[in-house]
Write a structure and sequence with these properties.
single chain, 121 residues, two-stranded parallel sheet, 3 helices, 8 strands
Length: 121
């Protein structure tokens, strides 16, 4: 938690000392160059196989370590394909209706320094 707090203060200090940098460019700081990575969320329609990809930048990965025997197993849970159905169904852009779909996270860009937030509770 200390590292995350320190990192956030470093980003805030940079933004405050460089007023010409707007918040939309805050992910270009040195802190992001060191700790920043990218996750890609892929949702696939089971009816037409249309895929929707969403990129998400991260500074730390939150891993649920409950009921896991290793960090690798927690990574596998994070990247495991899940089914979206029922009240959590996906509205397919191509089918124009709610459908059963699958969703999966993949790490697209790994950071130079990976910070893991281990969720124990």
């Amino acid at each position: 938690e200390f590292l995350i707090h320190l990192r956030d203060k470093m980003i805030q200090h940079f933004l405050n000392s460089h007023p010409k940098v707007d918040n939309s460019r805050k992910d270009t700081t040195l802190t992001h160059a060191v700790f920043g990575g990218k996750l890609v969320s892929t949702v696939t329609c089971t009816q037409c196989n249309h895929q929707s990809n969403t990129n998400e930048c991260f500074l730390e990965l939150g891993l649920d370590v409950r009921h896991s025997e290793s960090i690798q197993q927690s990574f596998n849970k994070l990247c495991k394909r899940e089914t979206l159905s029922g009240t959590n169904a996906y509205k397919c852009e191509k089918c124009k209706r709610s459908v059963i779909a699958t969703k999966q996270f993949k790490i697209a860009d790994t950071p130079n320094v990976l910070v893991l937030h281990l969720k124990r509770f």
